[in-house]
Amino acid sequence: MEKRKKPSLKLTQAPALRQDLRLFAVLGVTEEDFLRQAAELEADPLFARLAAPGPDGQAPLARRRLPGASYAFFQACGSDALASAAGAGAGAAEWLAGRPAMLALAARAGLANFEKYFLSGSPYPRGEAERACGFTAREAADLKAFTEAFLMAHEHTPPAALPPLFLRCAATIYAEAGRLEAAYNHPAYFRGVYSINGRALTRLLKSGGLSRAEVSRARALAAAAQRLSWRKAGFHRVLGALIEEQKDFLLGRGPLKPLTQRELAARAGLNPGTVSRLIASRTLLAPWGEELALKGFFRPRSAYIIDKIKEILGRGSGAKTDREVADALKKKYGLGVSRRTVNLYRTKTGL
């Protein structure tokens, strides 16, 4: 009889979630508790062994960036409250004193160049950043060192010490040349998620270098890393789908589109209940600087249709029949609405 293979641990973004109460607990905790759990996990000495490469160069737990993830350096570094919290540790005073100059230098580079050369984890050819940004070699080196120091200081600032904005506000949205970019307000999302290398993990657990208790705890730590990573990856998908669906609104080209959490869940490939948990009490900063609740991006189709009826009728003019309004909705906005539905909305709103 063939032996059944043990299921391997790996990060999955499949839409079908197991009824794992611990996973639902991670999805439902506040952002402060979530970041605290992640920090405590990574501070565990045994976790450091899981993240260390083995003899073959492969680590049981490897961190990888989420596709398209960025960090809101300008928002974070520009906040006096956050800079003070991040600079509370020993040795931070000197580089924090140079913060205004570094912010100005980053602004000179421009958003695209700063992302490419100073936030990217990959090395770049010597001289390329200087030429692209118009920097001297010393300026480029100073900005790179400062950016890395600020990122580390921000990530290791205790969640309880962070300004409330950087706990509830998930991301800052930038609009540049008709395009949108979402930059996370906390480095934990920018730096990515852990994926589990099943072979490397098994090799470590069977190496004899861990006690029986450590083997059990290592499995628990790997599973916890998987759950925390799933929350990050799930939120990243939800945020990306939401921005894509409401891009015209965020670019100032129109009102919010009709959208429900169930529809967004289908687009993101997630369970509607998961989406509801992930966006609860979270906000983002719009390109014009206003803080908006994520739940406010969902709008019933009826409200959208009523707005379009108002546009068709015009200010102070109701001299159109219900049939004419229905035809205009179809022709101008592609909305298939019956004459009776138009009549219902007009009667309900007094149009």
Low-pLDDT stretches: 4-19
Q: Which class do the helix and strand fractions yield?
A: alpha+beta
Annotation field: number of helices: 20
Order of the strands making up the biggest sheet: 3-2-5-6
Number of strands: 6
Mean pLDDT: 85
Shape summary: globular
What would you report as the Rg, rounded to the nearest angstrom?
25 Å
Helix content: 55-70%
Proportion of beta-strand residues: 5-15%
Terminal CA distance reads 74 Å
From N to C, what is the helix and strand string? HHHEHHHHHHHHEEHEHHHHHEEHHH
Q: Main sheet?
A: 4 strands, mixed
Summarize the helices and strands and which ones pair or pack.
Layout: H1 21-28, H2 31-43, H3 45-50, E1 61-64, H4 73-77, H5 80-86, H6 93-97, H7 99-109, H8 111-119, H9 128-133, H10 137-155, H11 165-168, E2 169-176, E3 179-184, H12 187-190, E4 193-196, H13 198-205, H14 212-245, H15 247-250, H16 261-268, H17 272-279, E5 283-285, E6 291-293, H18 301-313, H19 322-333, H20 339-349
Parallel strand pairs: 2-5
Antiparallel strand pairs: 1-4, 2-3, 5-6
